[in-house]
Amino acid sequence: MNEPRALAPFGRRTPTVAERRELGAYVVLAADDEAGPMPRAGQFNMRAAAELWGGREAAPPFLPRAFSVLRARERGGGAPSEQDGAQPLASRGPRLEFMLEAVGPGTARLAELGPGDGLHVTGPLGIGFPEPHDGRRALLLGGGVGTAPLAIWQDELLARGEPAPALLGFRDAAHAPGAELLQNARIATDDGSHGHHGLVTDLLAAELDEDDHVVVYACGPPPMLEAVRSLCGQRQVPTRLALESGMACGFGACFGCVVPLRAGGYLRLCVDGPVLDGELLAEVPAH
Ligand code: FES
């Protein structure tokens, strides 16, 4: 079994954005993380724009934002190109992608970045998705930008011959292009403008009626995760929930990301998660 955590190097790195593309309402940024390790699926990074971020009058975002890794690709070695100069390519770190929607000052600033802009990155942080167990197959379920960690997880599963279908929920057709990030995805939209008209958990219930020998890996807004936890709990289907939380530090120091446990006590999502076994929770906190 693979350890679902890659350790972060000490300190913050500043790779430059290599690529920016739009997928409907979403933006996908890619950056070559020269000094970073390959992250595990479900881990996250703290990210901030290197310029115009805090420290300036009337420049609101001050804290970095937590983003799940959408996709990570080895860039490998080989002969250095003219562009690479004399840099030894054997030490090149992965190309990391992340997905965002401009919904506030921090994400709006990040969504403005383009090739050549600096990006502060700390991580990979947290614990990622554990393997399916007991011969169960993986079933992926995402909502909105919660699609992101499922893409890298599906990549890993497919690479070893384990197809993992996905059920994805979006607000409307403007957001549904986010589903292009995964293979074999069925889509639900709140307004019915693309795919099933209704909740993605409607698709989940139908899927479990067909075959419930699965582990459900889910990421999305808290109400969606709570519906997944509740539905799967009733059917004794294991869940691995990648929870969202505002994170001030990302490495266990501020306790701003704690979640209460069914058995009492708390976990910090940034170091003990963000992926938790749904059975640990009496309910998914609204955060
Ligand atoms: Fe600071 Fe988790 S974000 S302890």
Low-pLDDT stretches: 78-82
Main beta-sheet annotation: 7 strands, mixed
- Report the portion of residues in β strands: 25-35%
How many beta strands in the DSSP annotation?
16
Structural summary, described in words:
The chain has 287 residues and is an alpha/beta fold. The chain folds into two domains: 17-124, Translation factors (Elongation Factor Tu (Ef-tu), domain 3), CATH 2.40.30.10; 137-280, Nucleotide-binding domain of ferredoxin-NADP reductase (FNR) module (Rossmann fold, 3-Layer(aba) Sandwich), CATH 3.40.50.80. Helix content is 16%, strand content 27%. It has five helices and 16 strands. It has helices at 105-111, 148-159, 200-210, 222-234, 269-272, and strands at 17-23, 26-32, 44-49, 65-68, 71-73, 95-100, 119-125, 137-143, 166-170, 185-189, 196-197, 214-219, 239-242, 258-260, 266-268, 275-277. The strands form four sheets. It has a seven-stranded mixed sheet, with helices on both faces. It has a four-stranded antiparallel sheet with strand order 1-2-6-5. A three-stranded antiparallel sheet has the order 4-3-7. Helix 3 runs parallel beside helix 4 (222-234). It is globular. The relative contact order is 0.15. The model is unreliable at 78-82 (pLDDT under 50). The structure holds FE2/S2 (inorganic) cluster (FES). The site of FE2/S2 (inorganic) cluster has 12 residues, from loops.
